[in-house]
Write a structure and sequence with these properties.
mainly alpha, 7% strand
Length: 219
C-alpha cells in the first residue's frame, strides 16, 4: 500500500508521502475539535484548506482503486487519509523552512515546472487542455494548484540544498565495509541522506505548533 503511494503520488505533484517519516503522522499536534470545517490542519497559524486535503485524498483513492482494480478497504482508506494529511503538512513545514532560509520560486520556475511535466504534454508540447482537464479532475483552480506546486518546489529546492551538504567520508565508508564488504558508496550515501533528512524533518516539525482537524479522517 505505502509502496504504491510512494511510487505514484508524484503523478499528482504532492511531496511523496512518507518521504521523511517511516510511520504515520498521527503523533503530531492535537485535533482541532470544533474548528472551521474548511481547515484540515494549521501549522504555526498557517491554515491548510480542507479542500486541498480532500482533492488530494480523492485523487489518491481513485488512483489506488484503478491500480488495484478493487475498492479500498477501511484500513487502506485510513492509510491514505493519514498519508495525505501528513503530505500536505509536510509541504507546509518545508515551505515555511524554505522561506526562513530565503529559498524562493520565481514565476518562470513555476511555469517551466508545469510546462515540462509529461502529464500536460501532447506531442511533446505543453497542452493547456490537458492541464485544465487535470485541474477539473482535482477540483482545483489554476491558482490553487499553482500555489500548492510553488510551495512544493520551494521545499524540493530546500531538500536539495540540505542533501548537497551531506557527505560520506572515506573513513566512514571503510569502517562500514568491515561490516558489509559488498556495500557501495552510493548506497551508503543514500542511506545517510535519508537518515539525516528524516532526523532533521522530525526535529523541525516538532518546533512548529501543528494541529489537525479530526474531520480530515472522516468521509
Amino acid at each position: 500500500m505505502m509502496n504504491f503511494l510512494r511510487k505514484h503520488m508524484r503523478k499528482i505533484f504532492i511531496v511523496t508521502i512518507l518521504a521523511f517519516i517511516g510511520g504515520t503522522f498521527m503523533g503530531f499536534g492535537a485535533y482541532l475539535r470544533g474548528t472551521s470545517a474548511d481547515t484540515a490542519a494549521v501549522v504555526d497559524g498557517h491554515k491548510i484548506p480542507m479542500k486541498l486535503y480532500r482533492s488530494l485524498y480523492n485523487a489518491s483513492q481513485t488512483m489506488y482503486e484503478e491500480y488495484s482494480k478493487a475498492p479500498l478497504t477501511e484500513d487502506q482508506q485510513k492509510q491514505i487519509m493519514a498519508g495525505t494529511l501528513q503530505a500536505v503538512i509536510q509541504d507546509e513545514v518545508l515551505y515555511l523552512q524554505a522561506q526562513k532560509y530565503g529559498v524562493l520560486v520565481s514565476d518562470s520556475e513555476l511555469r517551466s515546472d508545469l510546462q515540462s511535466s509529461a502529464m500536460f504534454k501532447s506531442n511533446n508540447n505543453f497542452d493547456i487542455r490537458l492541464y485544465y482537464s487535470f485541474l477539473n479532475k482535482m477540483h482545483m483552480s489554476p491558482k490553487e494548484f499553482e500555489e500548492m506546486r510553488r510551495k512544493q518546489i520551494a521545499g524540493e529546492k530546500l531538500k536539495a540544498i540540505l542533501q548537497s551538504a551531506i557527505k560520506v567520508s572515506e573513513s566512514e565508508y571503510l569502517e562500514a565495509l568491515e561490516d558489509n564488504p559488498k556495500l557501495l558508496m552510493d548506497d551508503m550515501l543514500k542511506n545517510k541522506i535519508n537518515r539525516v533528512l528524516s532526523e532533521w524533518y522530525m526535529k523541525t516539525a516538532r518546533s512548529y505548533n501543528i494541529t489537525t482537524n479530526e474531520a480530515a479522517f472522516k468521509q
